[in-house]
Amino acid sequence: MKVQENGLCPCNSGKAYHKCCKILHDGMKNASNALELMRSRYSAYAKQRAHYIINTTHPKNEEYSNDLPSWFCAINNFMQSTTFEDLKVLDFNEKNNEAFVIFQAVLSLDGQDCSFTERSHFIKENDFWYYESGEIFEQI
């Protein structure tokens, strides 16, 4: 999904990108909750903002890497070959410094459907939300 700065945000909030996730991507504010972080991460993938994905991934995540240049390239390669078509939030549960979001992402990778449903786990540390892990379910 190629999104213009003034176009609708890929996160499906109904807001313009520059008034929605771009504010988080540019570091002007932090996600206020895990749901906002999940939406902004989806949008970051769609907008090819690999640094945001890296900065919001918890070090306990299995894909976390200290080799930032290689990790950045891997994320960028995925972003460039993927079309981000739709995001649907199915459930959101937050308690204290932990949250779970279940969502459906409709994607195509090199023209092949690679849509999925995920239950994401988020952790809040030092007033900042991080994506810790995700459990992928069968395709939509």
TrEMBL record:
Highest taxon in the source lineage: Bacteria
Chain ranges of the YchJ-like middle NTF2-like domain: 34-134
InterPro entries listed in its UniProt record: NTF2-like_dom_sf, YchJ-like_M
Which spans are transmembrane here? Answer: none
Which Gene3D superfamilies does the record associate with it?
3.10.450.50
Descriptive protein name = YchJ-like middle NTF2-like domain-containing protein
Q: Which organism is it from?
A: Candidatus Marinarcus aquaticus
